[in-house]
Amino acid sequence: MFMTFRRIRKCQCMQLVTTCLVLSVVMVCWEQMDSSFVSHVKSYSHRYLINRFVVINKSLTIPREQARRFSNFRYLMDHPDKCVGEDILLLLFVKSSPENTERRNAIRSTWGNETYIQNTLGATVKVVFALGAPQTKKEEPSWSKRSGVGFQNQLFHENRLYGDLIQQDFLDSFHNLTLKLILQFHWMHSRCAHARFFMTADDDIFIHMPNLVKHLQDVSSRGVMDFWIGRVHRGAPPIRNNDSKYYVPFEMYPWVVYPDYTAGAGYVVSRDVADKIYQATLTLNASLYIDDVFMGICAHAIGVSPQEHLFFAGEGKAPYHPCIYDQMMTSHGHVEDIYDLWKAAIHPEVKERITWLTGRLYCTAVKLSLLCKPYYLDTYPCKAAFS
Protein backbone atom coordinates (compact mmCIF):
# COMPACT_ATOMS: atom_id res chain seq x y z
CA MET A 1 0.00 0.00 0.00
CA PHE A 2 2.79 2.40 0.94
CA MET A 3 4.66 1.65 -2.31
CA THR A 4 1.48 2.23 -4.33
CA PHE A 5 0.91 5.58 -2.63
CA ARG A 6 4.49 6.62 -3.44
CA ARG A 7 4.01 5.63 -7.08
CA ILE A 8 0.81 7.73 -7.25
CA ARG A 9 2.58 10.75 -5.75
CA LYS A 10 5.50 10.30 -8.12
CA CYS A 11 3.12 10.10 -11.08
CA GLN A 12 1.31 13.23 -9.93
CA CYS A 13 4.61 15.07 -9.57
CA MET A 14 5.61 14.07 -13.07
CA GLN A 15 2.26 15.27 -14.40
CA LEU A 16 2.69 18.58 -12.58
CA VAL A 17 6.20 19.06 -13.94
CA THR A 18 5.07 18.16 -17.47
CA THR A 19 2.12 20.55 -17.25
CA CYS A 20 4.35 23.37 -16.04
CA LEU A 21 6.83 22.69 -18.82
CA VAL A 22 4.11 22.73 -21.49
CA LEU A 23 2.60 25.93 -20.08
CA SER A 24 6.03 27.57 -20.02
CA VAL A 25 6.66 26.69 -23.66
CA VAL A 26 3.21 27.98 -24.64
CA MET A 27 3.78 31.25 -22.75
CA VAL A 28 7.20 31.77 -24.32
CA CYS A 29 5.98 30.94 -27.81
CA TRP A 30 2.60 32.66 -27.51
CA GLU A 31 3.71 35.80 -29.34
CA GLN A 32 4.89 33.74 -32.29
CA MET A 33 1.71 31.66 -32.19
CA ASP A 34 -0.36 34.82 -32.10
CA SER A 35 1.51 36.31 -35.04
CA SER A 36 1.05 33.24 -37.22
CA PHE A 37 -1.90 31.01 -36.28
CA VAL A 38 -4.17 33.66 -34.78
CA SER A 39 -3.43 36.16 -37.54
CA HIS A 40 -4.23 33.55 -40.20
CA VAL A 41 -7.56 32.83 -38.50
CA LYS A 42 -8.38 36.55 -38.48
CA SER A 43 -7.38 36.92 -42.10
CA TYR A 44 -9.35 33.97 -43.41
CA SER A 45 -12.42 34.73 -41.28
CA HIS A 46 -12.61 38.25 -42.68
CA ARG A 47 -12.02 37.05 -46.22
CA TYR A 48 -14.36 34.09 -46.34
CA LEU A 49 -16.85 34.50 -43.48
CA ILE A 50 -17.31 38.18 -42.73
CA ASN A 51 -16.11 39.32 -46.18
CA ARG A 52 -15.43 42.83 -44.93
CA PHE A 53 -12.58 43.36 -47.37
CA VAL A 54 -15.16 43.80 -50.12
CA VAL A 55 -16.77 46.50 -48.00
CA ILE A 56 -13.37 48.14 -47.53
CA ASN A 57 -12.77 48.30 -51.27
CA LYS A 58 -16.20 49.81 -51.89
CA SER A 59 -15.83 52.32 -49.06
CA LEU A 60 -12.43 53.54 -50.26
CA THR A 61 -13.40 53.81 -53.93
CA ILE A 62 -13.68 57.44 -55.03
CA PRO A 63 -14.11 59.24 -58.36
CA ARG A 64 -10.99 59.53 -60.50
CA GLU A 65 -11.04 63.32 -60.21
CA GLN A 66 -10.71 63.05 -56.43
CA ALA A 67 -8.08 60.29 -56.59
CA ARG A 68 -5.93 62.43 -58.88
CA ARG A 69 -4.99 64.69 -55.96
CA PHE A 70 -2.84 61.85 -54.59
CA SER A 71 -0.74 61.62 -57.75
CA ASN A 72 -0.96 64.96 -59.52
CA PHE A 73 2.32 66.34 -58.21
CA ARG A 74 4.95 68.15 -60.24
CA TYR A 75 8.25 66.36 -60.87
CA LEU A 76 11.20 68.21 -59.41
CA MET A 77 13.58 65.60 -60.85
CA ASP A 78 12.79 62.97 -63.43
CA HIS A 79 14.53 60.60 -65.85
CA PRO A 80 11.95 59.69 -68.49
CA ASP A 81 14.57 57.93 -70.66
CA LYS A 82 15.98 55.74 -67.88
CA CYS A 83 14.49 52.52 -69.29
CA VAL A 84 14.31 53.29 -73.00
CA GLY A 85 15.57 50.61 -75.39
CA GLU A 86 16.62 48.00 -72.80
CA ASP A 87 15.34 44.61 -71.72
CA ILE A 88 14.96 45.25 -68.00
CA LEU A 89 14.62 42.41 -65.54
CA LEU A 90 13.86 44.60 -62.53
CA LEU A 91 12.96 48.20 -61.80
CA LEU A 92 14.02 48.78 -58.20
CA PHE A 93 12.72 51.85 -56.40
CA VAL A 94 14.41 52.78 -53.12
CA LYS A 95 12.32 54.96 -50.81
CA SER A 96 14.75 57.54 -49.47
CA SER A 97 14.55 60.75 -47.49
CA PRO A 98 16.32 63.76 -49.02
CA GLU A 99 18.86 63.98 -46.19
CA ASN A 100 19.97 60.32 -46.51
CA THR A 101 22.76 61.02 -48.99
CA GLU A 102 25.20 58.59 -47.37
CA ARG A 103 22.69 55.74 -47.51
CA ARG A 104 22.12 56.32 -51.20
CA ASN A 105 25.87 56.39 -51.86
CA ALA A 106 26.30 53.14 -49.94
CA ILE A 107 23.61 51.47 -52.04
CA ARG A 108 25.18 52.74 -55.27
CA SER A 109 28.50 51.24 -54.17
CA THR A 110 27.16 47.85 -53.10
CA TRP A 111 24.00 45.95 -53.97
CA GLY A 112 22.51 48.76 -56.09
CA ASN A 113 25.49 49.14 -58.42
CA GLU A 114 23.95 48.75 -61.88
CA THR A 115 27.31 48.16 -63.57
CA TYR A 116 28.15 45.30 -61.20
CA ILE A 117 24.73 43.74 -61.75
CA GLN A 118 25.06 43.95 -65.52
CA ASN A 119 28.67 42.76 -65.82
CA THR A 120 28.72 40.13 -63.07
CA LEU A 121 25.15 38.86 -62.96
CA GLY A 122 24.24 39.36 -66.61
CA ALA A 123 20.99 41.20 -65.89
CA THR A 124 19.73 44.73 -66.43
CA VAL A 125 18.40 46.22 -63.21
CA LYS A 126 17.49 49.89 -62.94
CA VAL A 127 17.90 51.36 -59.45
CA VAL A 128 16.28 54.72 -58.74
CA PHE A 129 15.46 56.62 -55.56
CA ALA A 130 12.00 58.01 -54.75
CA LEU A 131 11.99 61.30 -52.86
CA GLY A 132 9.58 64.01 -51.83
CA ALA A 133 10.49 67.65 -51.26
CA PRO A 134 12.83 68.47 -48.34
CA GLN A 135 11.52 69.77 -45.05
CA THR A 136 11.46 73.49 -44.27
CA LYS A 137 14.71 75.44 -44.18
CA LYS A 138 14.89 75.49 -40.39
CA GLU A 139 15.21 71.70 -40.51
CA GLU A 140 17.97 71.64 -43.12
CA PRO A 141 21.40 70.33 -42.08
CA SER A 142 23.68 72.95 -40.54
CA TRP A 143 26.32 72.47 -43.25
CA SER A 144 23.73 73.39 -45.87
CA LYS A 145 22.85 76.62 -44.05
CA ARG A 146 26.48 77.63 -43.61
CA SER A 147 27.26 77.09 -47.27
CA GLY A 148 24.36 79.35 -48.25
CA VAL A 149 23.16 76.68 -50.70
CA GLY A 150 19.66 75.28 -50.33
CA PHE A 151 19.36 71.58 -49.61
CA GLN A 152 17.35 71.10 -52.78
CA ASN A 153 20.34 72.34 -54.76
CA GLN A 154 22.44 69.67 -53.10
CA LEU A 155 19.97 67.10 -54.40
CA PHE A 156 20.16 68.59 -57.89
CA HIS A 157 23.95 68.22 -57.73
CA GLU A 158 23.66 64.60 -56.57
CA ASN A 159 21.24 63.89 -59.38
CA ARG A 160 23.60 65.37 -61.98
CA LEU A 161 26.33 63.03 -60.73
CA TYR A 162 24.31 59.81 -60.64
CA GLY A 163 21.13 60.39 -62.64
CA ASP A 164 18.91 58.29 -60.39
CA LEU A 165 16.72 60.59 -58.27
CA ILE A 166 12.98 60.70 -58.93
CA GLN A 167 11.37 63.49 -56.92
CA GLN A 168 7.94 65.07 -56.72
CA ASP A 169 6.96 68.23 -54.87
CA PHE A 170 4.95 66.73 -51.99
CA LEU A 171 6.56 67.04 -48.56
CA ASP A 172 8.86 64.13 -47.77
CA SER A 173 7.52 62.78 -44.47
CA PHE A 174 6.34 59.56 -42.85
CA HIS A 175 2.72 60.54 -43.36
CA ASN A 176 3.30 60.93 -47.09
CA LEU A 177 4.76 57.47 -47.69
CA THR A 178 1.61 56.41 -49.54
CA LEU A 179 2.14 59.33 -51.94
CA LYS A 180 5.68 58.05 -52.48
CA LEU A 181 4.32 54.56 -53.22
CA ILE A 182 1.89 55.97 -55.78
CA LEU A 183 4.76 57.93 -57.34
CA GLN A 184 6.64 54.66 -57.91
CA PHE A 185 3.81 52.79 -59.61
CA HIS A 186 2.87 55.79 -61.74
CA TRP A 187 6.49 56.32 -62.79
CA MET A 188 6.82 52.68 -63.81
CA HIS A 189 3.57 52.84 -65.76
CA SER A 190 4.67 55.87 -67.77
CA ARG A 191 8.46 55.41 -67.91
CA CYS A 192 9.35 51.74 -67.46
CA ALA A 193 6.26 49.62 -68.11
CA HIS A 194 8.23 46.92 -69.95
CA ALA A 195 10.35 45.97 -66.91
CA ARG A 196 9.55 42.35 -66.01
CA PHE A 197 9.48 42.98 -62.25
CA PHE A 198 9.09 45.92 -59.89
CA MET A 199 10.56 46.15 -56.40
CA THR A 200 10.21 48.79 -53.71
CA ALA A 201 12.60 48.90 -50.75
CA ASP A 202 13.69 51.11 -47.85
CA ASP A 203 17.07 52.83 -47.95
CA ASP A 204 18.28 50.94 -44.85
CA ILE A 205 17.72 47.54 -46.40
CA PHE A 206 20.31 45.07 -47.67
CA ILE A 207 19.45 43.13 -50.82
CA HIS A 208 21.45 40.07 -51.79
CA MET A 209 21.37 40.96 -55.46
CA PRO A 210 22.92 37.73 -56.84
CA ASN A 211 20.28 35.62 -55.08
CA LEU A 212 17.45 37.95 -56.07
CA VAL A 213 18.48 38.19 -59.73
CA LYS A 214 18.78 34.41 -60.04
CA HIS A 215 15.37 33.91 -58.45
CA LEU A 216 13.67 36.45 -60.71
CA GLN A 217 15.34 35.03 -63.81
CA ASP A 218 14.00 31.58 -62.89
CA VAL A 219 10.52 32.99 -62.27
CA SER A 220 10.60 34.98 -65.50
CA SER A 221 11.54 31.90 -67.52
CA ARG A 222 8.35 30.22 -66.28
CA GLY A 223 6.22 33.17 -67.31
CA VAL A 224 4.39 33.50 -63.99
CA MET A 225 1.72 36.12 -63.41
CA ASP A 226 0.06 37.58 -60.31
CA PHE A 227 3.48 37.40 -58.66
CA TRP A 228 3.95 39.25 -55.35
CA ILE A 229 6.53 38.08 -52.83
CA GLY A 230 7.84 39.44 -49.54
CA ARG A 231 7.34 39.11 -45.82
CA VAL A 232 3.58 38.64 -45.53
CA HIS A 233 1.44 40.08 -42.72
CA ARG A 234 -1.91 38.33 -42.37
CA GLY A 235 -4.75 39.48 -40.16
CA ALA A 236 -2.81 42.48 -38.84
CA PRO A 237 -4.96 44.91 -36.84
CA PRO A 238 -4.73 48.71 -37.04
CA ILE A 239 -2.78 50.27 -34.19
CA ARG A 240 -5.11 52.48 -32.15
CA ASN A 241 -2.52 53.73 -29.64
CA ASN A 242 -1.94 57.37 -30.55
CA ASP A 243 1.57 57.23 -29.08
CA SER A 244 2.62 54.84 -31.84
CA LYS A 245 4.26 55.91 -35.07
CA TYR A 246 1.81 53.63 -36.89
CA TYR A 247 -1.30 54.98 -35.18
CA VAL A 248 -4.34 54.96 -37.45
CA PRO A 249 -7.48 56.67 -36.17
CA PHE A 250 -10.82 54.95 -36.40
CA GLU A 251 -12.11 57.67 -38.72
CA MET A 252 -9.38 56.86 -41.24
CA TYR A 253 -9.77 53.07 -41.10
CA PRO A 254 -12.79 51.84 -39.07
CA TRP A 255 -12.28 48.10 -39.66
CA VAL A 256 -10.55 45.74 -37.22
CA VAL A 257 -8.19 43.97 -39.64
CA TYR A 258 -6.06 44.99 -42.62
CA PRO A 259 -6.08 42.98 -45.86
CA ASP A 260 -2.99 40.79 -46.28
CA TYR A 261 0.08 42.78 -47.24
CA THR A 262 3.86 42.52 -47.39
CA ALA A 263 6.27 44.44 -45.17
CA GLY A 264 7.20 47.71 -46.84
CA ALA A 265 10.90 47.12 -46.17
CA GLY A 266 11.08 45.28 -49.49
CA TYR A 267 8.83 43.28 -51.81
CA VAL A 268 8.65 42.34 -55.50
CA VAL A 269 5.75 42.19 -57.94
CA SER A 270 5.55 41.11 -61.55
CA ARG A 271 4.87 43.53 -64.39
CA ASP A 272 1.19 42.59 -64.69
CA VAL A 273 0.62 43.18 -60.97
CA ALA A 274 2.40 46.55 -61.12
CA ASP A 275 0.10 47.65 -63.91
CA LYS A 276 -3.01 46.50 -62.02
CA ILE A 277 -1.84 48.33 -58.87
CA TYR A 278 -1.43 51.47 -60.95
CA GLN A 279 -5.00 51.11 -62.17
CA ALA A 280 -6.23 50.60 -58.60
CA THR A 281 -4.56 53.82 -57.40
CA LEU A 282 -6.65 55.76 -59.92
CA THR A 283 -9.87 55.11 -57.98
CA LEU A 284 -8.85 54.47 -54.34
CA ASN A 285 -8.68 56.93 -51.47
CA ALA A 286 -4.99 57.09 -50.51
CA SER A 287 -5.42 59.03 -47.26
CA LEU A 288 -4.21 55.99 -45.30
CA TYR A 289 -0.54 56.81 -44.73
CA ILE A 290 0.67 53.27 -43.96
CA ASP A 291 1.99 52.61 -47.45
CA ASP A 292 2.41 48.83 -47.23
CA VAL A 293 -1.17 48.50 -45.97
CA PHE A 294 -2.40 50.68 -48.83
CA MET A 295 -0.55 48.33 -51.17
CA GLY A 296 -2.51 45.46 -49.61
CA ILE A 297 -5.78 47.31 -50.15
CA CYS A 298 -4.91 47.94 -53.81
CA ALA A 299 -3.87 44.31 -54.30
CA HIS A 300 -7.07 42.98 -52.78
CA ALA A 301 -9.07 45.27 -55.04
CA ILE A 302 -7.46 43.66 -58.10
CA GLY A 303 -7.63 40.10 -56.74
CA VAL A 304 -3.93 39.50 -56.03
CA SER A 305 -2.65 37.89 -52.82
CA PRO A 306 0.90 38.09 -51.43
CA GLN A 307 3.11 35.02 -51.36
CA GLU A 308 5.44 34.40 -48.44
CA HIS A 309 9.13 34.16 -49.27
CA LEU A 310 11.08 32.73 -46.36
CA PHE A 311 14.15 34.88 -46.94
CA PHE A 312 12.50 38.28 -47.20
CA ALA A 313 12.89 39.98 -43.84
CA GLY A 314 10.29 42.17 -42.17
CA GLU A 315 11.54 44.80 -39.75
CA GLY A 316 14.29 42.54 -38.42
CA LYS A 317 17.95 42.19 -39.24
CA ALA A 318 19.03 38.77 -40.46
CA PRO A 319 21.77 36.91 -38.53
CA TYR A 320 25.31 37.34 -39.83
CA HIS A 321 26.43 33.94 -41.09
CA PRO A 322 27.47 32.39 -44.45
CA CYS A 323 24.71 29.79 -44.12
CA ILE A 324 22.20 32.65 -44.04
CA TYR A 325 23.82 34.49 -46.95
CA ASP A 326 23.40 31.45 -49.18
CA GLN A 327 19.65 32.05 -49.48
CA MET A 328 19.25 35.61 -48.21
CA MET A 329 17.08 37.95 -50.24
CA THR A 330 16.63 40.97 -47.97
CA SER A 331 17.61 42.05 -44.49
CA HIS A 332 16.42 45.23 -42.81
CA GLY A 333 18.18 47.80 -40.63
CA HIS A 334 21.58 48.13 -42.32
CA VAL A 335 23.38 51.46 -42.56
CA GLU A 336 26.94 51.51 -41.20
CA ASP A 337 27.49 47.78 -41.78
CA ILE A 338 26.30 47.63 -45.37
CA TYR A 339 29.80 47.61 -46.93
CA ASP A 340 31.08 44.78 -44.71
CA LEU A 341 27.90 42.76 -45.19
CA TRP A 342 28.07 43.17 -48.97
CA LYS A 343 31.66 41.84 -49.07
CA ALA A 344 30.84 38.93 -46.80
CA ALA A 345 27.53 37.95 -48.39
CA ILE A 346 28.70 37.78 -52.02
CA HIS A 347 32.06 36.12 -51.32
CA PRO A 348 32.47 33.04 -53.59
CA GLU A 349 33.35 30.82 -50.62
CA VAL A 350 29.79 31.16 -49.32
CA LYS A 351 28.44 28.97 -52.14
CA GLU A 352 31.44 26.67 -52.23
CA ARG A 353 31.16 25.70 -48.56
CA ILE A 354 27.49 24.77 -48.83
CA THR A 355 27.66 22.72 -52.04
CA TRP A 356 28.66 19.45 -50.39
CA LEU A 357 26.31 17.31 -48.30
CA THR A 358 28.29 17.98 -45.13
CA GLY A 359 28.02 21.71 -45.79
CA ARG A 360 24.24 21.51 -46.22
CA LEU A 361 23.83 19.49 -43.03
CA TYR A 362 26.04 21.92 -41.16
CA CYS A 363 24.02 24.89 -42.43
CA THR A 364 20.74 23.28 -41.47
CA ALA A 365 22.03 22.95 -37.90
CA VAL A 366 23.30 26.53 -37.91
CA LYS A 367 20.02 27.94 -39.23
CA LEU A 368 18.09 25.95 -36.64
CA SER A 369 20.11 27.58 -33.89
CA LEU A 370 19.84 31.06 -35.40
CA LEU A 371 16.24 31.15 -36.60
CA CYS A 372 14.29 28.80 -34.34
CA LYS A 373 14.21 30.96 -31.24
CA PRO A 374 11.55 30.47 -28.54
CA TYR A 375 10.41 34.05 -29.13
CA TYR A 376 9.33 36.07 -32.13
CA LEU A 377 11.90 37.79 -34.33
CA ASP A 378 10.73 39.77 -37.35
CA THR A 379 13.29 38.24 -39.67
CA TYR A 380 13.27 34.77 -41.27
CA PRO A 381 10.91 32.14 -39.80
CA CYS A 382 12.04 28.86 -38.27
CA LYS A 383 10.90 26.86 -41.28
CA ALA A 384 13.52 28.69 -43.36
CA ALA A 385 16.10 26.49 -41.61
CA PHE A 386 14.82 23.47 -43.56
CA SER A 387 14.73 25.06 -47.00
From TrEMBL:
GO terms for biological process: protein O-linked glycosylation; sphingolipid biosynthetic process. Residues 1-35 form the signal peptide. Keywords: Glycoprotein, Glycosyltransferase, Golgi apparatus, Membrane, Signal, Signal-anchor, Transferase, Transmembrane, Transmembrane helix. One of its GO terms (cellular component) is Golgi membrane. It is found in: Golgi apparatus membrane. Pathway: Protein modification; protein glycosylation. It is an enzyme of class 2 (transferase). PANTHER family: BETA-1,3-N-ACETYLGLUCOSAMINYLTRANSFERASE, LACTOSYLCERAMIDE 1,3-N-ACETYL-BETA-D-GLUCOSAMINYLTRANSFERASE. This is Hexosyltransferase. The lineage of its organism: Eukaryota, Metazoa, Chordata, Craniata, Vertebrata.
